[in-house]
């Protein structure tokens, strides 16, 4: 390991000033020094006192000690080196029918914020990964079977039943200033490693919340219809999974190998298998998505 890195604490007062004023995007903001998981913490707060969290709420942690990913996997970040936050929204009954788009739209907001503030070329890996494109020198040290893209963050979207109806908790983790030896997996990267050395986490938080507020407004105007709002196309445009040969691990040990073609109206992934049959997979039913090498010229799509 290298020398310990001295990292600035999040400036809670700056965040409150920028995000919590009457015309601001948030109704409630908690900045905490340490959380096990901001998703768990926000879900508990929503359950405890839903009325105090009406509108859009956010918990952001300077240090997250027990971050969670999908399917019980862990999300690990050193103190103050990453952005670890969760945002709560209250989906309408109509929104709940297209709930599969929530993590994808959250990812789209994150991609926009990364491009605007870190100047990196960012994209999504369906269903929940944030990538920096071309971050690896060779395919061998990138995400498995994924060209030279590396993972810089992820989204964990959870529905929380409360006395005031279901709330959605959208957790976002972004590696900001980690050095290479502070990353838990070799296929990961941080914004600093990708070239954005002096990025303030506050700047990134504000860009992220602003991008999400804009997407939420468009979503609501279109009655929660991702296709009619044009947001489905915008997600697909940044989704690096489409057009790629993938190996999708399913619960129970099954596997689907084929070419990712598009996202359907519910945000599910449509894969054409090597027999030419299209199969649709929901994010909640997928354990992992990995790149798959072409199986041979005769079998390519
Ligand atoms: N700070 C981090 N940066 C990058 N990757 C991380 C970090 N912390 C944990 N991980 C990796 O991310 C995984 C959690 O992400 P997730 O649950 O999305 O799995 P995944 O391997 O990315 O699967 P999928 O392909 O389905 O997205 C962990 O198992 C670990 O490998
Ligand atoms: O890649 C993934 O699986 C998603 C990782 C999501 C991590 C974020 S960090 C903030 C929020 N709190 C958590 O415990 N997880 C999410």
UniProtKB/TrEMBL annotation:
Keywords: ATP-binding, Biotin, Ligase, Nucleotide-binding. The keyword Transcription does not apply. It comes from Cellulomonas fimi. This is biotin--[biotin carboxyl-carrier protein] ligase. PROSITE patterns: BPL_LPL_CATALYTIC. The keyword Nucleotide-binding applies. Its EC number is 6.3.4.15. InterPro entries: aa-tRNA-synth_II/BPL/LPL, Biotin_CoA_COase_ligase, BPL_C, BPL_LPL_catalytic, Transcriptional_repressor_C. GO terms for cellular component: cytoplasm. SUPFAM superfamilies: C-terminal domain of transcriptional repressors, Class II aaRS and biotin synthetases. GO terms for molecular function: ATP binding; biotin--[biotin carboxyl-carrier protein] ligase activity. Residues 13-220 form the BPL/LPL catalytic domain. Gene3D superfamilies: 2.30.30.100, Bira Bifunctional Protein, Domain 2. The lineage of its organism: Bacteria, Bacillati, Actinomycetota, Actinomycetes, Micrococcales. It comes from the Bacteria.
């Amino acid at each position: 390991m290298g020398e310990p890195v001295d990292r600035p604490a999040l400036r809670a007062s700056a965040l409150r000033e920028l995000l919590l004023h009457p015309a601001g995007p948030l109704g409630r903001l908690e900045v905490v020094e340490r959380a096990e998981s901001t998703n768990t913490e926000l879900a508990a707060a929503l359950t405890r006192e839903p009325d105090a969290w009406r509108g859009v709420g956010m918990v952001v942690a300077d240090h997250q000690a027990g971050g969670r990913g999908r399917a019980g996997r862990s999300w690990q970040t050193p103190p103050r080196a990453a952005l670890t936050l969760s945002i709560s929204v209250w989906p309408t009954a109509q929104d709940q029918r297209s709930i599969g788009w929530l993590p994808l739209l959250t990812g789209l907001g994150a991609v926009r914020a990364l491009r605007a503030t870190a100047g990196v070329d960012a994209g999504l890996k369906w269903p929940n990964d944030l990538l920096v494109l071309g971050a690896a020198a060779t395919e061998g040290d990138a995400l498995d079977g994924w060209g030279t893209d590396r993972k810089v963050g992820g989204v964990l979207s959870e529905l929380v039943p409360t006395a005031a109806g279901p709330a959605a908790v959208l957790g976002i983790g972004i590696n900001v200033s980690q050095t290479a030896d502070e990353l838990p997996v070799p296929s990961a990267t941080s914004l600093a490693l990708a070239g954005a050395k002096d990025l303030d986490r506050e700047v990134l938080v504000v860009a992220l919340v602003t991008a999400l507020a804009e997407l939420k407004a468009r979503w609501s105007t279109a009655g929660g219809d991702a296709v009619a709002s044009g947001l489905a196309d915008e997600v697909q445009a940044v989704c690096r999974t489409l057009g790629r040969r993938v190996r999708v691990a399913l619960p129970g040990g099954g596997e689907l190998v084929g070419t990712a073609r598009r996202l359907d109206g519910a945000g599910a992934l449509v894969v054409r298998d090597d027999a030419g049959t299209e199969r649709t997979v929901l994010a909640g039913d997928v354990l992992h998505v990995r790149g798959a090498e072409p199986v041979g010229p005769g079998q390519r799509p």
